[in-house]
């Protein structure tokens, strides 16, 4: 990303995943994030933790960042909505582009790991075999129809549901060895629709909680957010 190392602030901490594995944090850096497309944009500065681990993502915006944007995200629809001064801003996901970036990163990593002792003839042979495996792609009417359906699907309302005053709501709690989660649910037409979701990675003494304490902690986190 061509970011100067002078902007990185050292920090003595570790990042824990849902599996309990930890990764040392190299530092913290403030970056300006532009969300959405003009004119419906939001510009904020966030502090990002730098971790040297293999991941499908270059940057991850956590719950703190989403709260700062006042954003409502739907992973099911691959879309995020947030308020701006002149309307609602949108950030849409593109799985096709994400797969292309992932495949490209894998090829780059494979190229970097090539043994320097391999001769030029072997490399040229590998490139020729790869060229033979390329399939010719043609954009047909069926492809266009599928693409239009995908655009319509992505622009549909988010999965998160709006509660109706006076109706009964249900709070589901989930715990694991390294995290707690809670989701607020409403029922409509024999379907359960999520209203709000929150999760937190356990750190320090929190990891030694008993299961009943973890459930109580998950309830406390949900109460604070709601």
Automatic annotation (TrEMBL):
<protein>
    <recommendedName>
        <fullName>Reverse transcriptase/retrotransposon-derived protein RNase H-like domain-containing protein</fullName>
    </recommendedName>
</protein>
<dbReference type="InterPro" id="IPR041577">
    <property type="entry name" value="RT_RNaseH_2"/>
</dbReference>
<dbReference type="Pfam" id="PF17919">
    <property type="entry name" value="RT_RNaseH_2"/>
</dbReference>
<feature type="domain" description="Reverse transcriptase/retrotransposon-derived protein RNase H-like">
    <location>
        <begin position="139"/>
        <end position="225"/>
    </location>
</feature>
<dbReference type="InterPro" id="IPR043128">
    <property type="entry name" value="Rev_trsase/Diguanyl_cyclase"/>
</dbReference>
<dbReference type="InterPro" id="IPR043502">
    <property type="entry name" value="DNA/RNA_pol_sf"/>
</dbReference>
